[in-house]
């Protein structure tokens, strides 16, 4: 049993790089969504969670990765789509799309228990953020950039981690500061459009946008890569929040 537990611990630790956006990024997505949910959605969310602070629960699905009771959920955070293919359910690793559909159905089902809805809501809030990080709609051959070892301002890391955390941390802002900054220039004509998009819309976007993530030379990334990708990073954070609000508004009509 001790050997089994050690192997499980090693497995759990090895998948930590799949924590898309990191805590700050997920909280930004949640905070943006809070600004655009309807009053009815806010009320029903409060009935399920006891509050309506989406940023507060946005990281829960990553936090439980260290709990052996949730070891079965390690591949719910991503999907894999090769460059020249469309998504085919069950063909490749990663169940994020199927789980999104399951969680939405649970939240709409009047017979679901409060506990079931709590889990579904917390996971759904998290997964919308995950799937807006382009490398969470990944290439199988490099595990969504995890196998691409590079340096970030001299620090040993990998491409996936740069998109999960390093680009965001480089701004040196709290999630509330970053959210306020991002919403200063929000184009209100985009809000309704983005809120109407489906899960597959932003899956296809992430698959197309990941090409830009791989556009670099050498193995040491610094300012050039940061400035080249800053706008894309911030677009995906805002879109994640707006689309999360759209999903919640549809669920809680």
Overview of the molecule:
The chain starts with a helix and ends with a helix. The relative contact order is 0.18. It is 59% helix and 6% strand. Residues 1-18 have low confidence and may be disordered. It is mainly alpha-helical. It has twelve helices and five strands. It has a three-stranded mixed β-sheet with strand order 4-3-5.
State the shape.
globular
Helix/strand order = HHHHHEHHEEEHHHHEH
Number of strands: 5
Indicate the mean pLDDT.
Answer: 92
Termini separation: 48 Å
Strand order of the largest sheet: 4-3-5
- Strand % is 5-15%
Largest sheet: 3 strands, mixed
Uncertain ranges? 1-18
- Compute the gyration radius: what is it? 18 Å
How is this fold's topology laid out?
Blueprint lengths: L1 H13 L7 H13 L4 H11 L4 H4 L2 H4 L15 E2 L15 H13 L5 H19 L4 E2 L10 E4 L2 E4 H11 L5 H9 L4 H8 L3 H15 L6 E2 L1 H29 L2
Parallel strand pairs: 1-2, 3-5
Antiparallel strand pairs: 3-4
Question: Gist?
Answer:
With 253 residues, the protein is mostly helical.
Features:
globular, single chain, 253 residues, mainly alpha, disordered N terminus
